[in-house]
Amino acid sequence: MPESSPQRHHAIDYVEFTVTDLQQAKRFYAEAFGWQFNDYGPEYAGIRSPQGESAPEVGGLRVDQEVRAGGPLVLLYSSDLDKSVQAVQGAGGQVVNGPYEFPGGRRFQFTDPSGNELGVWAEL
User: Fold this and answer.
1) Contacts with 29 (C-beta within 8 Å, 6 or more apart), sequence order
2) Which domains does the chain have, with CATH numbers?
3) How far is it, in rounded angstroms, from Cα 60 to Cα 37?
């Protein structure tokens, strides 16, 4: 009998962000959201799952010369949107849209120090 896999068929399994400065990106995401990392050298860090070190990584930070705008918008969930806004700004991110209401919640979008745009949402 095959072992049970934590991955789900056709589910998003890993999100990788391009960053221009790995140390700055790690500091930003750690300060703003409490993220922790597995270091794999000077140009890559895996994003640890919030479920603990035994859980698979949920993404990574990869160094490149530039960050290209556009592409999919990654949304994070927050139990306190206003505190998340303050944390993003306090860590050096820039709110570029919102906070605003949408059916069922509120959200804002921000850019990190490398220029990646993400969103954060909360239920009403």
Assistant:
1) 35, 47, 61, 91, 112
2) 15-66+73-123 (3.10.180.10)
3) 8
Q: How many residues does the chain have?
A: 124
Q: Per-residue pLDDT tens for 76-85? A: 999 999 999 9
pLDDT of residue 69: 86
Written as six digits, the tokens of 86 are: 């303050």
pLDDT of the residue at 2: 52
C-beta of residue 59 within 8 angstroms of C-beta of residue 12:
no
The residue behind tokens 């409490």 is 34
Alpha-carbon gap, residue 107 to 51, rounded angstroms? 24
Q: Which residues of the chain have pLDDT under 50?
A: 1
Half-sphere exposure of 72 (CA within 13 A, CB side): 8
